[in-house]
Amino acid sequence: MNTYEPLDLSAFNDELAGKTLPILRNPTRGLRVKFLPATGVEFMACVAEILNCETGEVDALFVDYDAALFTWLFVPLVGDDGKIILPYVYELWDRHTETIVKGLRSVSSQRAILGSRPLPSQET
Prior knowledge:
Elements: E1 4-8, E2 20-24, H1 29-35, H2 40-51, H3 58-62, H4 67-74, E3 77-78, E4 84-85, H5 88-104, H6 107-114
């Protein structure tokens, strides 16, 4: 099930505080793989999925904002050092994944998996 959360656009520019866009936080592995190399219609279809809208609605969401906002969110760039700079949505996705993985690795989760046995770090 897709999870969309509002992104406060002040992360891009303080002047946009309070303005939000719905952003997919838990993309499938398939979307992550096809998103970066996508171009044209396929790229816009990916962006629409990330924004929870139809492809034809994407431009309307950004009409009042600097074009740099769209680039920051969705377009990979090549830095001066030749390294790829991932779009900001990747940072959001990575944070979401990290939160889930940390929760799965918590002590309570480990106890549920191991039952009532002590954790290896607790054995004497």
